[in-house]
Amino acid sequence: MRMLGKGNPSKAETLDVLLSQTQRPTTAWSPLAPAPPTLLLAPPFTKQILREIPLFKGHWNRMAVPEKPVLYSYFRSSCSWRVRIALALKGIDYDILPISLIKDGGQQFTKEFKTLNPMSQVPTLKIDGIILTQSLAIIEYLEETRPTPVRLLPQDPKKRAHVRMISDLIASGIQPLQNLSVLKKVGQETQLAWAQAVINSGFGALEHVLQSTAGKYCVGNEISMADLCLVPQVANAERFKVDLSSYPTINRINKTLLTMEAFQVSHPSRQPDTPPEFQA
Ligand SMILES: N[C@@H](CCC(=O)N[C@@H](CS)C(=O)NCC(=O)O)C(=O)O
């Protein structure tokens, strides 16, 4: 990180340094390292001097150099994948800080991470100066603050309710029952049968719902938050060897969505923390 302040650099050099510091490195690798500040100023570079630079003139009071969002994520976490798809669809540049749910007994349980997410779960997103947990709340925040280029909630109240209904069906009715912490309690021997049972029960209901809401995607022909929940849940189903042939609508929508770039770049097989054996 270049710092301003030593000697007497020219205004052009000042500007050059400031602009070079508006972005941090693309990926931070240390799980719990605090994000460095976007802009470091040291005397004599005060607001006074910046005000004189034409580019900043008249804008200083409104000017805040945005921090790149940081997503605490685990490659195989379906809830993290939901958020990664949303970030990709919205074209938001962000850093990933991997939190391994396995290594060291689970990095989600460290004191440092618990201060960010008291539930000891991923995802967690640092954005716009706040920390957000709960994937659906995160996606709705992104939708409200960055409605373009792709909307994830339809304007029509009935369709919007359908999107939330399907998202909740998956996020409250299926995923939590086959979450890692639950599987640990269920025990090694019965966890596969347990996961298959809860996914089959949820997918039976979901298939039924989709038959009346779906078009090309879960709700009509526009992509939505429901689709961001569907694809990662199907990946979980495949991981637990659920036979998907009884769910033709789920299967069809999943296949369509997986051809989209936003679903591919955010895929568990293409994350900075994906172990070599799971890389695509
Ligand atoms: N409702 C939460 C659920 C988050 C969640 O269950 N995350 C899982 C990974 S998908 C997790 O961190 N599990 C850690 C554990 O079970 O110890 C959300 O949607 O963000």
TrEMBL record:
Pfam families: GST_C_3 (PF14497), GST_N_2 (PF13409). Residues 67-150 form the GST N-terminal domain. Its EC number is 2.5.1.18, 5.2.1.2. GO terms for biological process: glutathione metabolic process; L-phenylalanine catabolic process; L-tyrosine catabolic process. Residues 156-276 form the GST C-terminal domain. Its cofactor is glutathione. Keywords: Cytoplasm, Isomerase, Phenylalanine catabolism, Transferase, Tyrosine catabolism. Pathway: Amino-acid degradation; L-phenylalanine degradation; acetoacetate and fumarate from L-phenylalanine: step 5/6. One of its GO terms (molecular function) is glutathione transferase activity. InterPro entries: Glutathione-S-Trfase_C-like, Glutathione-S-Trfase_C_sf, Glutathione_S-Trfase, Glutathione_S-Trfase_N, GST_C, GST_Zeta, GST_Zeta_C, GST_Zeta_N. Gene3D superfamilies: 1.20.1050.10, Glutaredoxin. GO terms for cellular component: mitochondrion. It catalyses: 4-maleylacetoacetate = 4-fumarylacetoacetate; RX + glutathione = an S-substituted glutathione + a halide anion + H(+). The keyword Acetylation does not apply. It is found in: Cytoplasm. The keyword Magnesium does not apply. It comes from the Eukaryota. Belongs to the GST superfamily. Zeta family. NCBIfam families: maiA. This is Maleylacetoacetate isomerase. The lineage of its organism: Eukaryota, Metazoa, Chordata, Craniata, Vertebrata.
